[in-house]
Amino acid sequence: MKSLFRYGVLLGLLLILCTACGKQIPKIDPALLQSKSSLLVVTDPALSADARQRLQNALSEWRNTKQLAFEWLPDVTVLTSEQLDKIRSSSYDYIFVAGHNLVQTTLPLAEDIPERKWLLLDDRILRNTLTVKGSHIVLKAVQEDRLRSEWEEWVRQQIVTGRPIEWVTTSAYPIPSDWAPAEEAETVHLADAEGWVQQFQFAVKAHKPAWVVGFAPLDAAQLQRLRATHASVVDMNNTTVDLQWNEVLLSLQHTFSTGAWSPGLKSYEEREFRILKNL
Q1: pLDDT tens digits along 23-39
Q2: What is the rounded distance in angstroms from the CA atom of residue 167 to the CA atom of residue 234?
Q3: In terms of DSSP H, where are the helices of the chain?
Q4: What's the maximum distance between 2 C-alpha atoms anywhere in the chain?
Q5: Phi-psi region of 208 (alpha: psi -120 to 50; beta: other; left: phi over 0)
Q6: Of 118, 159, 167, 241, which sees the most CB atoms within 10 A?
Q7: What is the 3-state composition of the chain as percent helix, strand, coil, each rounded to the nearest 5?
Q8: pLDDT of residue 25
Q9: Phi, psi (degrees; rounded to nearest 5) at 255
Q10: Residue 166: what pLDDT?
Q11: Cα separation values, 53 from 49, 152, 220, Å
């Protein structure tokens, strides 16, 4: 009886094995394999801890639910030649770069690698004019005209209430004519002109302005000249951009999911940022 029982067990195992061998091993759908996108993320050291966490959460979700493979290079100030060689040789669908200084150094490098699609996110107001070359680059930024529109109401209030402004700028950043009309030219000082400091100090004493306003990007020494007057100082170039990362990442997800591509210099959508005047 024991022999018969062992024989029955052995026969049952053989039948199970034979049945299993008759089934095909599941194969990955080629369409699914082709649909998987790959992303290289490059961020600069100034990226906030909150932004890093939101980005990490989004990347992990996209990997699990959107069939997106990614690599992340954090704390990069400029892409090295080795990193650029890897970008050229790897089959990334998109290169995503975030951070003002990193975007500025990456833009000319990206122009030389047209076989990749580059998404560059600047997180400061662009005070200089940039030209984006090639159909493979998207650069999103808050542009100069938005700075002016954000400060328009404040300047108007000063004019209406009779609170005079002494302006300091440079020749590359002229004061809007409706903020400082031609007849008020003596209230505008160019910090890149020879002998401007003495003229500026004399004008402040004579005009006794309610505000001394720096319009152009000024260096630390120039800003110190403004503060040394003991007048109330406003540095308009210190206006900052607070990216709303959840909204920005939703837009990126749409790009990755749909393949929609519109190259060039683009403005953020209103939901994607806030302006902080730091007044």
Answers
A1: 333 333 444 434 568 99
A2: 10
A3: 2-21, 30-35, 49-65, 81-89, 100-110, 144-160, 196-207, 220-227, 245-258
A4: 120
A5: left
A6: 118
A7: 45, 25, 30
A8: 30
A9: -60, -45
A10: 97
A11: 6, 35, 32
The pTM of the full predicted model, rounded to 2 decimals, is 0.82
Q: Exposed, middle or buried, 96 (CB in 10 Å: 0-12/13-18/19+)?
A: buried
| Spans of the chain below 70 pLDDT | 1-36
SS3 271: helix
125 near 143, Cβ under 8 Å? Answer: yes
CA distance 124 to 37: 29
Distance CA 101, CA 154 (A): 29
Separation of alpha carbons 193 and 170, rounded Å? 8
| Calpha distance 268→91 (Å, rounded) | 28
pLDDT tens digits, 43-54: 999 999 999 999
The first and second tokens of residue 168, run together, are: 């300091």
Q: Which amino acid is at 143?
A: Q
Strand pairing of 232-235 and 211-214? parallel
Taking Cα atoms as reference points, which of 41, 40, 135 lies closest to residue 93? Answer: 40
The residue count of the chain comes to 279
Contacts for 94 with CB less than 8 Å, ≥ 6 apart: 37, 38, 39, 40, 116, 117, 118, 119, 255, 256
Euclidean distance between CA atoms 189 and 196, whole angstroms: 7
Predicted local distance difference test score (pLDDT) of residue 128: 83
